[in-house]
Specification:
Blueprint (H helix, E strand, L loop, with lengths): L6 H13 L3 E3 L11 E3 L1 H20 L4 E3 L9 H6 L1 H4 L1 E6 L6 E3 L6 E8 L1 E4 L6 E2 L3 E5 L5 H13 L6 E4 L2 E8 L14 E4 L3 E3 L9 E3 L5 H6 L1 H8 L5 E10 L14 E11 L2 H8 L20 H18 L7 E5 L11 E7 L15 E8 L3 H10 L5 E2 L1 H9 L2 H21 L4 H14 L4 E2 L2 E8 H12 E7 L5 E7 L10 E5 L5 H15 L4 E3 L5 H11 L3 E5 L14 E6 L5 E5 L3 H9 L1
Parallel strand pairs: 3-15, 25-26, 25-27
Antiparallel strand pairs: 1-2, 4-5, 4-12, 6-9, 6-11, 7-8, 7-10, 13-14, 15-16, 16-22, 17-18, 18-19, 19-22, 20-21, 23-24, 27-28, 28-29
Helix pairs in contact: 2-14, 8-11, 8-12, 12-13
The protein binds glycyl-adenosine-5'-phosphate.
Glycyl-adenosine-5'-phosphate binds next to strand 16, strand 19, strand 22 and helix 14.
Amino acid sequence: MVESKTNDLMERIVSLCKRRGFVFQSSEIYGGINGFWDYGPLGAELKRNVKDCWWRVMTQRRDDVVGLEATIIMHPKIWEASGHTTTFADPMVDCLLTKKRFRADQVDPSSGIAYHYSGAEDATDSAKTSREPYSVLLPPGKNPESARKTAKQFYALRGITDGRLLGERTEKVENSTRYNPENGSLLTEPRMFNLMFKTCVGPVESAENIAYLRPETAQAIFAQFKTVAEVSRQKVPFGICQIGKAFRNEINPRNFTFRSREFEQMELEFFIRPDEAVEAICGSVAQPAGPGHPGQPQANWGWQMWHKYWVEERLAFYESIGLPRTTLVEYWQKPEELAHYARATVDILYKFPFSKKNAAGELAGEELEGVAARSDFDLSQHQRYSGKAMGVFDEELKTAWAKLDASKKETLTQRYFESRRNYLVKTNVDQAKAEAQAREEAAGLARGSYVPHVIEPSAGVDRLALALICNAYCEDTAPDEKGKMETRLVMRFHPRIAPTKVAVFPLLKNKPELVKKAQEVRDLLREHMTVFYDEAGAIGRRYRRQDEAGTPFGVTIDFDTLGEQGAELKDTVTLRERDSMKQTRVKIADLPALLLGKIR
Ligand code: GAP
């Protein structure tokens, strides 16, 4: 990444994305639609590569994770069980003058002199009055007339066109988020706004037909947990993963694709034994021993080891597709930031050019992914709302339990009872009922039964694609056709995720033998990877176009390839490496294996 990651840099990145067809506004010919983005040819390949890499690593290369592809619209009860219908909301405020909407917690604080008014009356028509209070915040030293002008505009919207302001008084204000930072107008009181998009299922638009576009892919995994476990014959610990669209009616979509209203998620729900079961089976529960990857999963891992494991796995994934560790931040949420059911959450942040700076002046980073230890909350909620048992039978636990001494049984039963009772009480079950139900569930341990806990690594495809684009963007210098140094714009994507893997060029397009050979090479490579064939323009310019597209390798077919400079060079090509611009001579027959070794 180039050194100066500024907002100016972000503008250049956005402009490149549009010019080269990575990302552009949805419905652009109609003026666009806020919070929705389309991916052009290069962006679509990039996104596909990101998802393929994730899928390969998270399920295809593992025995303990299986995939799911569920519908976007699901039974509305799912969102009641998950809490989304009641709590998936952001505080929203509107500018009283322009009606512009803000997320209350994202309004920049402002200071100055607040001009308060108790109302206004019309100078020419005394019947027209307003008693609605209104305020304007002016930066220190600004002419009071500007506040009066704004206030008159506000009352004009209420029909008082020739307004005389009433009850003006002033007040010094520090760091207030009650005013629109753009024009100083007072904002409305915050109101909660549910972020789920509503729709109706079937031809009748009525309350009982309301359904939601899913705001996350995770809930389908919980709802299908039992079925997937059964059909895949998986035993806890194991995971179910899914990639798919999610929709959130964000109040303020912003920072290009970073906060969109339609986006894709890649989520894993990894189901584990409760610690009490692990202790019953293994005698003790392993604890994380310092920083770093804890290694291969072990039977004595409880939620802390599994959580640490997934944080480290996910960090390694980001590094494997080209995001250096120095661009990532591992942020452990503070206890007061955790959702009530979460035991720990680590946000993996990427230092985007638009990220705020911390006290040390470094980019603080913005969330790419959250890795949450969500206890047994989700499955318990679905068990409760659907009335279907979400517990599993664990043969090993049943066998181990029978061999425990009485005091161990009592300790583990008591601990499990407390955790279940706490969950029930937190979710508003009456204390006496909670105690009775928790007691019954704790007795289930002896029969090898429990509701699994879950570790959830949840990532956004679009945010990751944007991070990869920002990270790849680089301006360096390279010689032009005549050897003069010029600025080169190059997207240094890791070959694993680069949209096009190799470009194939005949040196000259008016030499049929060169073109024929180049097309043969193209067809040979196309079986294995994405290839771009280009015969238009000077070879230097063709290289530059591919540098901008982030194509890591270029293959040129020249007269040596045809054997015109000697038999030893026949059927060899020039292989150019994008970043170093180094060129080597390679046999055509060796190309597929050589390139595959670099892009896998
Ligand atoms: N199931 C947990 C869950 O959905 P989240 O933190 O709300 O957690 C997970 O979302 C990830 O989804 C985020 O880390 C982010 O990468 C992505 N994401 C969330 N809201 C988004 C938005 N409005 N636009 C783009 N990506 C978003």
